[in-house]
Every structure is written in C-alpha cells, then in structure tokens.
C-alpha cells in the first residue's frame, strides 16, 4: 500500500488522467462527426456507429472487468485497459476507411471499460481515511462531470485547427505517460485469485445481456421504443439478464455475488445514481440542441456556453465538497445537491424561444453545476463506504455500469419524448417554438427524475444505527 501523501497524490493524478481521457473521448468525437463523415465517406446512419460501437463495448464490459480487477489485481487490469485504449486511439487516428474506424472504436470501448471499471475501487483503497477519501472522490467526480464540457470545446478546436485525426491521436502522449507512471505509483495488488470468482458462463451471460441492452438503447432513436427491432433485441437482453441472475444465485463462485445487494447503502446509491445520470445525460444532450437549433449557436459557442457547468463543478467538487461533507455528512450534502439540480432543471423547463443566455440559462446551469459538484462525490463516497475490500472493484464496476446504462436510457427516453412532442407541434407552430416545447417537456421530466432520486436518497441512504 502507498503510504506517503505525495505518492498517493501521484497515484490519484494517474487515475484522474485516465478518467479524463476516457470521458473526453466520449464527447470530443461529437463535434468532429461531420468532418469524419466527409473524409471517410460514412452514410448518415453509419456515422452513428462511430459513437455506438464505443458505447456498446464500454457499457457491456464494465461489470465483468470490474470483477476481474478483484480477482487478478486492479493495477494489472487498469494497465491492460489503458494500453489497449491507447493503441486503439492510434488506430482510430490513422483510420483509412469507415470500417477500420468503427472497429477501432469498439476496441477503444473495450480498453476504456477495462481501465475505468477499477478506478473508483483503487481510489477507495488508496484513501481509507474519510476526509482524504472525500477530497479524492471530489477530484474524480469533477473529472467525470467536467470532462464532457471540456471535450466539446477541445473537439471543435482540434478539428478546426488541425484535423479530426488529432481528437484520437492526442490520447497517445496522455496514455503512454499514465501507463509509465502507473507502474511506478500504483500498488501491484495480487487480487483474490480467479478461483474465487471465475464464473465464465456468468461473464458470457451478463456481457451479452449488457451489450444487447446498450445496442437496443442506442438504436431506439432511429426505430422507436415499440418497433420490432427494439423488441427483438431488448427482449433477449432481458432474458439473458434474468438467466444471469439465476446463475449468480446458484453458482458457488458468482461473478456478481447477490449478497452485494444486501447492502441498503450500496443498492440505494446505485438507484439514486441511475436516476441522477439519466436526467443529467439527457440534459447535456438536449441543452446543446436548444442552443444550436433554437438559439442558433455555433459548435464553438455551444462548447463555451457549457463551460460554466464545468467551472461550477470544479470549484465545488475540488474546493468545497470535501469540507462541507466533513462538517455535515454525505447524506445532507447529497440531498442539498439534488435539490439544486432539480431547481435548475425546473428553471430550464421554462426556457423561452428567444432565450437570453445570461438570464434564462446561466443561473440554471450554475445551480446544476454546484448541485452536481456537491451530490456526486457524496453519493460515490456513501455507496463505496459499504463495500467490502474484496468487492471494491466489483462495486466500482457496478457504479460505472449503472452510470453508463442508465445514462444511455435517460438520454434516449428524454430525446425521444422531446422529438415526439416537437414533431407533433411542428405542424401547427413555428419550428423553433415546437422544438422548445419538446425540450421544456424533457427538462420537466428530468427534474422529476432528480426529485425522485432525492426521495430515494432520503429513504434508502439513512445512516445505520450507531454501531
């Protein structure tokens, strides 16, 4: 175990650098999609697979790779995923046709899941003291939350200044430096051994189920929730998931020990996280559409318009969250953050067609940034506090899986609801008015999701009786 504050800070820096690289990669591509389409000859439906190939691999493998970290050692899994992601980034940057880019993006997703699944468990192990852990998780939460906004700006700048290839090639120096430092500053833990949980059939079932589920979700926007295609893939995903649960209840060495859900704190934190990210992923997607399609912002203007959210998250999660958590406790801080996010979404639920950024958007975005900066570190600390040391990687993978899958579901549902309402009103109203009405509906539903998360947090995340 690392003992000095300096070595632990270096280790945290490596873990956060990896996280930033992964989060940036999930958003930086969006701005460059038109250039990629023109250069590699993608069709419009095929272009979506630049995003979807990554998301399917990433969301499908998080639970498996998180458990592998517990079994064979988290540093080994982290380093393997980091190197695979970096190598795949090189192939993405050098891609000479659409097929190569999509295949490389899938491999990127595998590497991203493998390295990301164990990060939170490694942070918890590095910082066992509650105060230091709160600060470390605050830094991790900031990187996760703010990376999306930074990616939007960086994608536009790199694509315009150099070319779209550099949105991938920029990962090479970061990945190589992080890999070299990880060998020096991360503990080489041995894990509990493959025999303690080498459930190969369970791994196949849950990975297939999650990949099918993510595939179903990312394709909903083009086919609809009740389409034969959606039902044809979603149904088998649910069957495979049910078979996985049965398998975990009966096998002596489960991949996902069901006892982990006996923890009210851990289970409740995942419920709250799922509702929160469903709302926030939808918000990030829809606010960009409102800025672009209704207010007429350019890609660069939109990226900079999102920066106050990242700045608020940075100030709170890095400088304030740990102090207020130490004084008031995780649960009150979490509830306060959820109230602020709900209030911000309610304000966005009233955005006008001719909205003015300083008046109609900025206050809501600052409230959401502050709220997220308070809520996310407190939620992560609460959830991981009840995980056994031997299950830290599994719990970390479970949190990441919840975040990815529920984020995809939230984005798809809110986007479909907004588009459906907008299309229905477009026949009788100006397009900008119809679109705004759809966005308002989605923001109100997102506010309801976060309010529900607050209720669950109040009920399920109550502190245990004095031990």
TrEMBL record:
<feature type="transmembrane region" description="Helical">
    <location>
        <begin position="267"/>
        <end position="291"/>
    </location>
</feature>
<keyword id="KW-0813">Transport</keyword>
<dbReference type="InterPro" id="IPR004638">
    <property type="entry name" value="EmrB-like"/>
</dbReference>
<dbReference type="Pfam" id="PF07690">
    <property type="entry name" value="MFS_1"/>
</dbReference>
<keyword id="KW-0472">Membrane</keyword>
<feature type="transmembrane region" description="Helical">
    <location>
        <begin position="49"/>
        <end position="65"/>
    </location>
</feature>
<feature type="transmembrane region" description="Helical">
    <location>
        <begin position="365"/>
        <end position="384"/>
    </location>
</feature>
<keyword id="KW-1003">Cell membrane</keyword>
<dbReference type="InterPro" id="IPR011701">
    <property type="entry name" value="MFS"/>
</dbReference>
<feature type="domain" description="Major facilitator superfamily (MFS) profile">
    <location>
        <begin position="11"/>
        <end position="465"/>
    </location>
</feature>
<protein>
    <submittedName>
        <fullName>DHA2 family efflux MFS transporter permease subunit</fullName>
    </submittedName>
</protein>
<dbReference type="GO" id="GO:0005886">
    <property type="term" value="C:plasma membrane"/>
</dbReference>
<feature type="transmembrane region" description="Helical">
    <location>
        <begin position="77"/>
        <end position="96"/>
    </location>
</feature>
<feature type="transmembrane region" description="Helical">
    <location>
        <begin position="136"/>
        <end position="158"/>
    </location>
</feature>
<feature type="transmembrane region" description="Helical">
    <location>
        <begin position="198"/>
        <end position="218"/>
    </location>
</feature>
<keyword id="KW-1133">Transmembrane helix</keyword>
<feature type="transmembrane region" description="Helical">
    <location>
        <begin position="405"/>
        <end position="421"/>
    </location>
</feature>
<dbReference type="InterPro" id="IPR020846">
    <property type="entry name" value="MFS_dom"/>
</dbReference>
<dbReference type="InterPro" id="IPR036259">
    <property type="entry name" value="MFS_trans_sf"/>
</dbReference>
<feature type="transmembrane region" description="Helical">
    <location>
        <begin position="102"/>
        <end position="124"/>
    </location>
</feature>
<feature type="transmembrane region" description="Helical">
    <location>
        <begin position="230"/>
        <end position="246"/>
    </location>
</feature>
<feature type="transmembrane region" description="Helical">
    <location>
        <begin position="441"/>
        <end position="461"/>
    </location>
</feature>
<keyword id="KW-0812">Transmembrane</keyword>
<dbReference type="GO" id="GO:0022857">
    <property type="term" value="F:transmembrane transporter activity"/>
</dbReference>
<feature type="transmembrane region" description="Helical">
    <location>
        <begin position="164"/>
        <end position="186"/>
    </location>
</feature>
<feature type="transmembrane region" description="Helical">
    <location>
        <begin position="303"/>
        <end position="321"/>
    </location>
</feature>
<feature type="transmembrane region" description="Helical">
    <location>
        <begin position="333"/>
        <end position="353"/>
    </location>
</feature>
